[in-house]
Each structure stands twice: as structure tokens, then as C-alpha cells.
Amino acid sequence: MPASAPPALRDLKSLTDEQVSELFEDRIMERGIKYFEQGRILRPFVYRDSIMAECQGTLPENYYIRVDLRGGNMVASCTCPYALGYCKHIAAVLYGWLKKPGMFKDLGQSEDLLKKMDKGPLVETIIDMIKYDPDVVYVINLRLLPRPELPGFVEREMKNIFSEEFVDYLNVREIVKKLDIFREYASDIYQEGDIGTAMVVLRPVIEAIIDNYTNLDDTDGLMRNFFAAVMDLYGDIIPNYRMEGERRRFMNQALEWYMLAEWGLERVLRNFIRKETERLKEQKFMVNSVELRLADYKKSFITMGPKYSEEYEYVEERLERLEGLRADIKGHI
């Protein structure tokens, strides 16, 4: 599960045993240490201010863990379904980073080698990577496409990724893996300072998940947790817009998504809106936005069909959503 951690760090090398232990309940930390000692950490990498690894869990598939340092704060995520904070897989990776940093292959060294390669060998290397993992094509296209062409490309790829009418829980993991390439690219260009392009990449991902979530068997919560990580990034980007109107536009967009989301994603969005509204100090604005939508839904009762019809129940549920969100926001004014 994605989460934010309090330690302020200069770099990942300055992370201490004490700081890591403070992030976890004792039982979670103990399980993480056990996982590390059992050799469950696979493919560990470090690149600049990020560490990445896979961890063998209880399911046949591995979980993907990423730890980033953003502005002195550490942010970690895992694709496992644990929903109560940092999980044992993150604990295992961080413990491994503390006790055996040499096991993490430094991608910066590979970057230096690639920069020195001639075009021919470089192309051959890329083709070999694609043969090993076809999803590398997404990475290449995102990196090489001119940025004005990104909106159309991302929209098309979202349709391709969600082309199946129904996806069982085993294949949800593959979809999350593909989507994470787009999230990671959005994160990279955001950190480069191009917040506009980051949003261009990120918003179609959010909308595709909301539109298609009811067609997925997300029993173990992988997609829901990934969605929370995507919304965390969306929230990181918003404050960087200087104009108040732009920040409010993005928050109103989150409110629209909240009204569309189903099957638990609405809870992720409700938490997001409450948290980001408080961070941006926009409680009064968001209460007004919620109340405008409440008024619109109440007006729709005038022309609605019989009580207890599907239409009536839909509107009634949306009213409850809005009232609950309004109460959340007012509780933090």
C-alpha cells in the first residue's frame, strides 16, 4: 500500500535503523526482517533517490516495492493488498537496504555505460530488453514521443490495456504493472519540473481505472492500492500550480471522479479530497463545490421516476456521498 513517511533525509544513504523501525509496527518489522533473511527480495535496484525491488509474498506472483525520496521525505509503495500502512514487504526491502546495500544494483552505472554506447549497439541492447520484457515498449514510446503527441498516445494505450470485458484477479497484476510505467514516467517528468505534461500522462490513467474498475476482479485490492498511489502523485503535483484557479480546477476534477467511482474507489477519492483540501487550505471552496452538487442532485428528484427505482437509488447514494464528504471537510475547518 502507498504511504508517506515523516523522516526528513538528505539522501537514502543517510537512512538509519531507528528511522526505519519507527515506520512499522513491531510485528510488521519482524516479518519484514524474516522475509529478508529468507532471501525473498529479488531484483533490487537503486537509481538516484529511488530504490526498487520485488518481494516473494504468499501468492505465486511477486510484489513490486518502490521507495522514493521526495523533498527530504520518503514515500514508499507496494502492490500487495495490505491497507493499514507500511507492509512487511516494504520493511524487508528497507531492512535489506540498511544491512546489505551492495545487493542493490546501481542503475546509474548502467546509465553511464549506455550513454557511452554507439547507436548500433544501443539499439541492439534495447531490442534485447523488449524481447525479455515486451512492456519495455511502453517505456521507450513514452520517452521518445514528442510531448505534444503524448495525450493521444496515452489515451490509445489506456484503451488497449483495458480492452478486455472482464479481467480476473490474476491478470489485474499485469495491468497494474503496465499502468505503473505511466505513473512512473509522470513522476519523473514532474520531478523535472514539467507539471503540465505530468498531468497529461496521469489523468488518463486515473480516468481509465475509474471507468473500468467494475470490470476487474480486484479481490486482493492491488488495483485499489495502485489507484491510491496514483492519486498521491496527483496530489503532489497540484500545489505546484501557481494560479489558485488551476489548483481549484484539479480539485473539482477529483470531486467529479469521486461521484463516478464505484466499488471502493470512491473511498480512496474521499480520503484524497479531504486530505488535499486541508493541505491546500481550500475547505470553504470545496464545501461550496460539494453543496452546489448537492443542490443539483436534489433538483433531479423533481423529474425522477418512482421511489426505489434504480435511478432513485443512484441519486440517493450520491447524495449520501456528498453529505459524507461535506461532513469530512467541515470537520477540518
From TrEMBL:
One of its GO terms (molecular function) is zinc ion binding. The lineage of its organism: Archaea, Methanobacteriati, Methanobacteriota, Stenosarchaea group, Methanomicrobia. Keywords: Metal-binding, Zinc, Zinc-finger. It comes from Methanocella paludicola (strain DSM 17711 / JCM 13418 / NBRC 101707 / SANAE). Residues 63-98 form the SWIM-type domain. InterPro entries: Znf_SWIM. This is SWIM-type domain-containing protein. It comes from the Archaea.
